[in-house]
Amino acid sequence: MSLVIRNLRGGVAGTEILRGVDLEVAPGEVHALMGPNGSGKSTLSHVLMGREGYEATGGSVTVDGMEILGLETSRRAAAGLFLAMQYPIEVPGVRIADLLASSMRARGVDPSDLDAALATEAARLEVRDEFLTRGVNVEFSGGEQKRAETLQLAVLRPGYAVLDEIDSGLDVDALRDVARRVKAMTTENGLGVLAITHYSRLLTELTPDVVHVFMGGRIVTSGGPELADELEAGGYDGIAARLGIEVPGPVQTRADDPFADPGF
Amino acid sequence: MTMQHPFTVDAARALGGPDWLRDRRVAAAEGLADVEWPTAEEEIWRYSRIDELELARFRPMSAEELGAPGVDSVPGGGPVAAEVGERAGLVVVRDGRVVHHELDPALADRGVVVGGLATLDHASVAGTLGATSDASPDAFTLLHDAFLAGGAYVHVPKGVVVDAPIVVLHWSDGDGLASFPHTLVVAEETSQVSVLERFGSPDVEHLVDAVVELIVRDGANVRYQAVQEYGPRTWSVALQRAHLGRDAVLRSSAVALGGAYARLRSEARLEAPGAESEQVAVYYGDQDQMLDFRTLQDHVAPRTHSNLLFKGAVEDRARSVYSGLVHIHPEAQKSTATQSNRNLVLTEGAGAESIPNLEIEADDVRCSHASAVGPIDEDQRYYLATRGVPPEEAERLIVLGFFEDVFERLPVAALVGPLRRAVHDKLGHLHPGDGRG
């Protein structure tokens, strides 16, 4: 019973970006995957989820023992994997309730309690009604988007969640609310979390069990929460120096813009 | 017209009804001989299937087939009318002839008229019948007038507010026949009314040449909704034209789902300051259908406002055409207009044309137009998939969501649910055998 990634290789448009990723997230655990811009973090999330154009060229990913590579994206979700997106997509005219009901029906779950669950979670996450009646993500602010992503996560209750920079583009209050809700799910529902981030600020609320440093498409070192502190103090250059490796290419050109879209 | 067809002056004369209507028909039939049958060479018929429409394939109804004007004991509306829910009045029109009408007696007492054109005296409709459609008659308008044997008439006197919708149901059947439904709505000063029309036909070869005239006097407020659900072998060429007076408001909408070839010209003429019109449409074509829309937002007075939103989807081998013009005349200063047409092309063999146009002859106006044709957005599909929504269901949600902003603007709320289901049912064809809905 875990999310197990073994020697995962892959990328986008024939370019290999992931160069052998190994990771195991057990239920209830929080893993932080920290890496500089351009290190391939978002690519990892999309290869895990099977986004069109992203390809796994080797290795395996199992969710509670079930191989998901090769499955269509919605089947990976049905297997228990959830991706909270860095840039959630606007879908005009499709309310959160519509897509959650459809998701539940696809898994054979009766959606009759959905409205009550939505109301409860909306209150917990301070998601206002207007964001439930509008098309999902349409004209949502950054904070509202991330609250809405977390709301969907909380209602769907998957086994594992990949949070792709859920801490970007939102204010301190929203960050705290989102992090606390996710943390609560780890204890209440045994949610396993892979939190992709390049800041440690998320981790003050969402305390990780394991921190992985991700550079050049692979995990270069893993450790406890103290690894995040080391990053905070010395940056990726410091970690790279300690490990005797070079920080690969893109980080040097993009490090000055922490919100830059890595472009893949 | 030089082509041989059975739509002759004699045939037009032979139909029943009052003398004034017969004279009007004969004049139009004679005029028909002088106009050219349209071809796809003309801009207004570009991309259309006019070249495939052989008039000689159809024939008009005889006087016997049509029957005498007046009301039969036909039960009104049936299940279709029931779906509308609460209504203030009902007109049932079969093959262009009114066969049933009813009206809330309280409204009749206040002078509201809901009934058949052919049972009126000429004075009642002089100055209104044809007031919008006769301006520059094309072959189809003349053909319509030449065989107009009745049609629905709604008249709301000055200041009268009609709360519930007035429903007009058109049913065109008869294999190989042509029918000519007409609806004339006159909303006098400061009156308010909602009119809902449904146009339908069974699976027979049929040509429908319909004209809808909406006369919205000063300060009046009209909501108009047309739903077209023709059978797969019906050809339809319809003209819907509105004239708006000072501070008049018209919210009109069209939902087009059926027909082999179904064309709608939807035109709003803003004739006096402060007039405001909205034209919205939802269309969905599948199999070999072609849905063809030509719109005009005609601003002839200052401080007039119009907006238009037409949204469609096509799948299989279906085609759609949207061609629209915003015309701001020189005297229409301080007017605003928006025009937007968006199309989803759901399968490879389908196609949509979108041609928005502006003709602006005044310098102090605000106008915008937008147009889009494309497949379902891949990112939207992916987003729904990451939530566990299976691909075919994601497609349905996205398409229904695409139409949602038009559905929200449909003026007769009671029909939004049924129409959403009708679109959903059409979407079911996209993935046959996957357990629709």
Please, could you describe this protein's structure?
The complex is a heterodimer of chains A (264) and B (437). Chain A has helices at residues 41-49, 73-78, 96-106, 114-124, 130-133, 142-156, 172-188, 226-243, 250-254, and strands at residues 3-12, 15-25, 30-34, 54-63, 66-67, 81-84, 160-164, 192-197, 210-215, 218-223. By secondary structure, chain A is an alpha/beta fold. Chain A has a single domain, classed as P-loop containing nucleotide triphosphate hydrolases (Rossmann fold), CATH 3.40.50. Residues 251-264 of chain A have low confidence and may be disordered. Chain B is of the alpha/beta class. Chain B has 10 helices and 21 strands. In chain B, strands 1, 4, 5, 7, 8, 10, 12, 14, 16, 18 and 20 form an 11-stranded mixed beta sheet that branches. In chain B, α2 (19-32) packs antiparallel against α7, α8 (378-386) crosses α9 (391-407) and α9 (391-407) packs antiparallel against α10. The longest helix of chain B is centred in the C-terminal third of the chain and has 17 residues, at 391-407. Chain B is globular, with a radius of gyration of 21 Å. Chain A binds chain B through residues 49, 51-52, 72-74, 77-78, 82-83, 85, 88-94, 98-100, 102-103, 106-107, 135-137, 152, 156, and chain B through 377-380, 382-391, 393-394, 397-398, 400-405.
